[in-house]
Structure formats: structure tokens, C-alpha cells
Specification:
252 residues; alpha+beta; 5-stranded antiparallel sheet; 5 helices; 13% helix; globular
Length: 252
Amino acid sequence: MAGAMRAGSINLLSCTWRNIPLFSPSECSRKLRVSITPSSFSSFPHFKTLCCSASSSLNAKDNITTPCKPSVTEEGTTDALKAAVEALDIRVGRILKAWKHPEADSLYVEEVDVGEPEPRTICSGLVNYIAQDELQGRNVVVLANLKPRNMRGIKSNGMLLAASDASHENVELLTPPEGSCLGERIWFGSEEESNSQSDAASPSQVQKKKIWETVQPHLKTTNNCVAMFEERPMRTSSGPVSCRSLKNANIS
């Protein structure tokens, strides 16, 4: 880089050309000091990557010791999302009993059988959308590994998943297909992928890592009202999960 203008200098600790290191580790450890300017790069048109950390001022006193972090690839993002959705414990449940919350006009309280020794108590904001008598004895989809929340004096232990339109004026509960077993864990993908599910995360992990918040924006229904995670259908052993009539709807 001879002849470069003396506009500034940086410590060049990590620099490659076509994935070939230009400096050995020992040279990097001595914090080789070179002067660079935009005109320097015109002399080397084949430089593809200059990975270094420097201030915008290129101050000669800068002491750069940390290379830039690589950007997250699309494949890496997809893998992370897939791991997140597989960490959710989504189960087939049945509402045994439902009543209006005594302290909250918009909430129902439901007793839900998810295949455990005792039914769960779950609070749902469905009063303005679904009649109480439509809930009794209904099969539902339950997100089961959320931390319990106190909702106006009643501890809610899970969440019923539902589809809603963009204006949130219409809401429909997701429904497992006929023949689904109570307590069965629901997955996303092909029929064969049921045997490769990862263990569900603990409720504390779901909260700490914001797993539900990561996954939820990627849940939609199709034109056929089938619940999907991106391009992967939500399934039980009896078939896809769906809602009654809401197409291309959000799921939450």
C-alpha cells in the first residue's frame, strides 16, 4: 500500500483476500500498523474483504483489537427460528368448563384438560368474540410451557391459541383435527417429523429467551385456514390444525 496518503492509520489485525490471510497470527499480534485511505484500495481492485474495527475518524491513536462480527446468514436465521418453534410445548386440550372472570369483563376462565393428572386453569380474553356455551367441551390448542401469570387474582397456566384478522375484530380458536389425542404434542412440518421433535423448553427459558415473542410473528393461517409456521403446517397425528373460517390470519 505504498504511496497511500497519510490521512490516518489503524491497527490491521484481521484482513483477508479471497479467504486467504494476508498476515500471520504472529504479525497480527504485533498489531501491524499500516496507513490506508480510499485511494489505497484503488491500487488493489481485487480486495474483497477488509475485516477490521476502526473509528470513522481513522485516528492514528486508535487501538483496534476486535474483528468485525460476521453478519447472520438467512440460513442461520431460519435455523434459529426452527429451534425456537420446536422449543414450544403446544398440546391438544379440551375445555371442561368455562365461566366469566369475576374481576375482568373481557376474560373467561377455563378448566382445560391437556392430558395431565389435573386440568389447567387458563384465562383467555375471548368474551367479546366467542360465546361461553361454544367453549364447553371444545377441543383446543394450548401453549403449555408459559410461566403462570396472575390475571386479576386468578393464576393462568397456559394460553389458548387463536386466529384473528388484521383488525382483530374477528377471533377464532384453533381446532385440532378430529381424532387428536388429549395431551398430544403438536408440531410443525411433515407427518414424519413428529418423531424428531426437540424437547420443549422450560417455562423459565421461554420467558427469558423470549421464545414465544420470536415465533409468534411467523404464525399465520393459509387460504384454507390451516395454521402454519412459515411454510410448515401445524399438525397432530390426525392431520393439520386449522380455524373455522379466517384466512391469512394472525395466530396468537
